[in-house]
Amino acid sequence: MLEYYMAEAVLDVVLGNLSSFIGKELGLFLGLDQELKRLASLLTTIKATLEDAEEKQFSDRAIKDWLQKLKDASHLLDDILDECAYVALGLEYQGVKVQSSCLSSFHPKHVVSHYKIAKKMKSISKRLEEIAEERTKFHLTETLPERRSGVMEWRQTTSFVTQPQVYGREEDVDKIVDFLVHASHLEDLSVYPVVGLGGLGKTTLAQLIFNHERVVIHFELTIWVCVSEDFSLKRMTKAIIEAASGHACDDLDLEPLQRKLKDLLQRKRYLLVLDDEQENWQRLKSVLACGAKGASILVTTRLPKVAAIMGTMPHHELSMLSDNDCWELFKQRAFGPNEVEQVELMVIGKEI
Asked: Which residues are in the Disease resistance N-terminal domain (predicted)?
């Protein structure tokens, strides 16, 4: 059952990321729009068979292995989409306007990166086609089960700490809080990126920092925005306004929205957390650089390249938890915080 849920979760994320490129200027610019549409259709068809695969995997080892191959290939596709997002960020940083014309996509500065991405996309497309073809021999039935939650809802984060106990992140919290409270006053606008693999706890770390007593006291205004979904610059600006003001914002054009955001942040020592940011940075930065000295932005991202472009100092690399911290976390999830430890179950747990 675990393979099923993991495969479904990964497919949900990848399909959400694919939708953010399809029909948009970047997909057209890279010449991948039709390929992305085909992949989205293919993955949607595969996803429709997952419910049947869940039931049959226990009696058929081959189906269990197939689910693992699907999950691995989906992760690779997601990495390629991350690379596409990085290309967009790099172009924006260079002041290049992304256009859908064929001529612009063959600019000498960009043709190499376009070729590499296209080659990777062709390879993963072939791999997913083989996986899709393989499923036919299992005679899986296509169904359209009601989704447990939408992709965007699944990925949405908030500033509230939802974990009852967090293990192994005390040093990370202390280091970043010290910087935000003391060192950040040297910059007009400090950007501190936190980089780590998906699932390592970047969001949880950011939540702990956001709610830390020293941070709450130090900053006049604290703002949390989750940007892992398809955020245009306009939607990003509107989301920051709503998070900063606590009120819904009218659907204005970008220019009045940016003026409104500047009015909210003007001469304030604020902390803005951008959870899972990947693009829109250069045009957003010019608007955010209006606060008081010491205003800071904490960014979480999986991509060191994104951190290098956004950060005003070296990024903070989030490491794996120690074996001891992993065990403490496992015990909490498996037995609960107040359960009496059972020796036989402890032995099995440590083997896992």
From this structure: 10-92
Q: Is the pLDDT at 9 greater than 90, yes or no?
A: no
The tens digit of pLDDT for each residue in 284-314 reads 888 898 888 889 999 998 878 888 888 888 9
Q: Between 110 and 80, whose confidence is greater? A: 80
Q: pTM of the entire structure?
A: 0.61
**Domains held by the chain: number:** 3
Residue 150 lies in a domain: no
User: What mean pLDDT do residues 167-196 have?
Assistant: 88
pLDDT at site 265: 94
For 259-267, the CB contacts below 8 A with 24+ separation are 261/237, 261/287, 261/288, 262/287, 262/290, 264/221, 265/221, 265/290, 265/291, 265/295, 266/290, 266/291, 267/291, 267/292
Residue 265, in any domain of the structure = yes
Instruction: Provide the pLDDT for residue 338.
Output: 61
Structural domain for 17, as ranges: 6-136
Closest CA to 193 of 183, 206, 204: 206
